[in-house]
Each structure stands twice: as C-alpha cells, then as structure tokens.
Amino acid sequence: MSGLFTSLAVMMSPRGLAAAGNGAGLGGAAFIALLVLAAFASIITARNMESLGTGKVRATKADSFVFGFLDSARLFTLTLLAVSWLGIAGYAINEIFFLWFPNLGASFLILTLAVIACIIADENGADVFTISMTLGFCAFLYVVVMAVQPADSGAGYPTVIPQMLSLNLPDGLVAAGGLGWLHLLFIAVFAFVGFDIPLAFENRAARAIPAILFALVAFAVFCWSALLLDTPDKLAETTVPHFQVAKLGLGELGNYLMGGTVVLVTLAGLLGFFMLAGKRMESILAEDYRAYATKGAAVLIALVLGGLLATGWAGEEALESLLAAGLCFWFGTYALIDLLHLIGSRRAGGGLISLVLGLLVLLVHGGAAAYCALHIEFPAHFYYSLGGMTVAGIVFGIGCYIQNKPIIDAAVEAEKSELGDDEDFDKELEEAVPDTEDEALKIVDYK
Q1: What's the whole-number mean pLDDT along residues 123-133?
Q2: What mean pLDDT comes out for the span 287-314?
Q3: Which is more confidently placed, 58 or 218?
Q4: 413 and 407 in contact (C-beta within 8 Å)?
Q5: Residues 107-123, mean pLDDT to the nearest whole number
Q6: Which end of the chain is more exposed for a tag (fewer CB within 10 A), N or C?
C-alpha cells in the first residue's frame, strides 16, 4: 500500500468534518476561500518536503533532520486524534444505530475491528482501508450534494449560490477582528492536517495532491450546503455540525448516512495510522521481522488507545490542550520546512515568484501554529507535550539524517558531475571573476 489516501482518512475524520462545519459558521462563505488557500499551501509544502527529502533544494547539510520532528508530531497528534475519533464514532453508533449499545463499548469495537483488519487482512489491512474510505467518502458526498438546495426564508443564504462575493460576514467574525481571522485560518489549515502522510510511504508530492484536492472539493460543497440549510450562528455553536446539516438536508436518512460516514472514516483513519506507524517501525527492525511491523504497531497503538479510552480521556478537557500542543508542533514543523525550502531556494537563485509563494505558505502554517500557542488552557500539559515531542523529534531526526544522508550525498555528487571536475571549475571561476586587491587595506574584492 503506497499510502496514497491515508491522509484523506485523517482529513475526513469526525474532527475534520466538525471543523469544516464550524468554520462555515464562523466565517460564512469567506471560509471557503480560506480552504482554497490552505489547500494551496498544503500542496506547496508537500512539494517542499519532496525537494528537501531528495536533496534537490538544500538550506543546510542537515535539512533531513527536520523530518524527525515531523514524525514526532504525527505520532503524538494522531494518537490524541484517534482517541477523539473513537469517542465520536462510539457516540454515533449509540445515538443513531443502536441505542442499547454503550458508547465506550462501540469505541472498543471499532478499535478491535481495525486491529483485526491489520492482523488477518492481506497487505496490512489495505483492502479494508480502501473499502471503508470509499464507502465513507461516497456517503458524505451524497449527503452534501443532495443538501445543496435553496434554503427557506430566515435560514442560511436565501439564494441557490451562497454569497461568495458578498461583504456581509458573520457578526461574530467582524467582532473578533484579527484574532477571529487567525482562528478561521487555523480551522482551514486543520481541515488538511496530515496531508503529508503519503510522503512517509513514498517521497513524492504527487502522492499527496489527489487527497488534498478530494478533501477540498468535499469540504467546499459541505460548507456551501451548510450555509444554505442553517444560519452561521447555529453552525458555529454546535459540536456536530455535520450531523445537523445531514438531518436538515435529508432527514433521518441523512442522519444514518452521516453516522455511517463517521464510523467508516474512523475505521479507515485508524488503519492509516497503523500503516504509518508500521512504516516507521520498519526502519528500526531487522529485515526478517519487517513484515510484522504494521501488525505489531497496530497492537501497540491499540493498547495505548484502549488505556486512554478506559480512563475516560475521550471526554477530558485536558485532551484538547494536549491536542493543541500536538497541532502547534505539527504546524510549526510545516512552517520550518517551508522556511528551510525558502532559504535553500534563495541560495539556489530562485526568482521572485518562489520567494512570494514561500513566504505565503510560511505565514499560513506559521499563523496556524501561533493560534495554538496563543490559546493554552492547561499550560503544564501543553509545555510538557512540546518538550516530549522535541526530545522524540531529536531522536527520530538522527535516524532520518542517517537514512537520508546517502540520498543527499548522491544529489551533491550529481551536481558536481554536471559542473565538471572541482579543480577545472575553480580555474574557470578564477578566469571568469578576476579579483582586484585594494593596495591600502589589502582586501580582496569580487566584482
């Protein structure tokens, strides 16, 4: 499994769907424009990761070290997100499908099914992942497309097409000012969190782009239908805007379809997480045991998630603070990658367009990280988490540097071979750029 759509499962998770609905309520149709900006920034950053990972662009000799921080942020944040996914999926099963089935029992059932899929299914659960993701995505698209219709008077936008070019923004966004826009930018970036996961399987930006575009289309249509069916204030206040929109658009059928979407994408998201962790375990295992990496990772992560669920972390407020720390580190790593690529591109003689694009994506991901840092509810949890991810990132970074060093060295040698022999190149440089010596100061100037 190449991991082509593992990121789509994370983006279309219950938290991603809730973020898109709340964003539509907070920003109105302007949020759709921010989704486009966030998707564009994700594509550029994915390309930056490929360039730094292959040595095409280099800012320092240890650029690949930053991928260790990326791994640390992924594993920590996805663990917390998985706890939240399972809690929401358990709620969906209990409230929509089987009222007699306990929430926690439903969460453990989904977790158990994901582990079993990794253990007994071919290709580490790839078939189960593909089926779950496809069915969940299609069900979601069906709901939001069928819900796109003119809203009744007094609710949502009064026309078929939301007022995308209107200057009438929600009152809450206008009152919040700059912090409100920063909050909205954070939600838009969060909607595409994990777009980089396919690059962990194969360092090619082309692997990440389809998932980003699929998510962009799905979220844009969802925001459109949400604004048609409900008022911005109600969308911003609810914690389950996706269920609210589904029920308003299709009644009980929409509720069932959205509940199925939540359960299926949660299962797919867990499988994608297991595959990512297994891919990372392969690098530290002997060759004879690498075939069991994903299965071992699934069991290990399931034990951690089971312990967190059993102790009630799915409903803890502190979980949100830990998640804020994880997202701050993850978005901050995106921004660091953007910065390194910008420096390397400038040293390689990049033009004005590359400079502008580099600054734009740096501001987008840096702004999202700053929002997390500005809204800390439990400082101890936040700072300890940052410290732990930093230490883990250093350890992972050493491994990434050692693993990628042959690739970087090969890229350097390829550049040297294109320029010719070093001595010949130095001689050509001296002939092309004669030096003049200042008689008084004995300084050599190059003109």
Answers
A1: 75
A2: 84
A3: 218
A4: no
A5: 84
A6: C
The burial of 128, by beta-carbon neighbours within 10 Å (0-12 exposed, 13-18 middle, 19 or more buried), is given as buried
Q: Which residue has the tokens 């496809």?
A: 134
The CA distance from 103 to 109, in Å, is 10
Given a contact cutoff of 8 angstroms between Cβ atoms, the answer to whether 170 and 233 are in contact is yes
188-192, 238-242, 373-377: least confident range: 373-377
What phi and psi values does residue 436 have, to the nearest 5 degrees?
-120, 140
Beta-carbon contacts of residue 116 (< 8 Å; ≥ 6 apart): none
* Lookup: tokens for 79: 């663990």
Looking up tokens 């901050």 gives 332
* Host H or E run for residue 436: strand 435-437
Question: What single-letter amino acid sits at 250?
Answer: L
Rg, C-alpha atoms of the chain: 24
pLDDT recorded at residue 212: 94
The pLDDT tens digits for 58-81 are: 777 777 888 889 999 999 999 999
Q: C-alpha angle 151/157/159, rounded to 5°?
A: 70
- In this structure, what are the phi and psi dihedrals at residue 202, rounded to the nearest 5 degrees? -155, 120
**132-164: per-residue pLDDT in tens?**
888 999 999 988 888 775 545 444 444 445 544
d(CA 212, CA 210): 5
Mean pLDDT of 34-50: 93
Phi, psi (degrees; rounded to nearest 5) at 446: -110, 120
Cβ within 8 Å of residue 333, ≥6 positions away: 66, 69, 70, 73
CA 273 – CA 125 distance, rounded (Å): 11
Residue with the two structure tokens 């694009």: 357
193 torsion bin: left (phi>0), alpha (psi -120 to 50), beta (else): beta
H-helix or E-strand spanning residue 445: strand 444-446
Residues present in the chain in total: 447
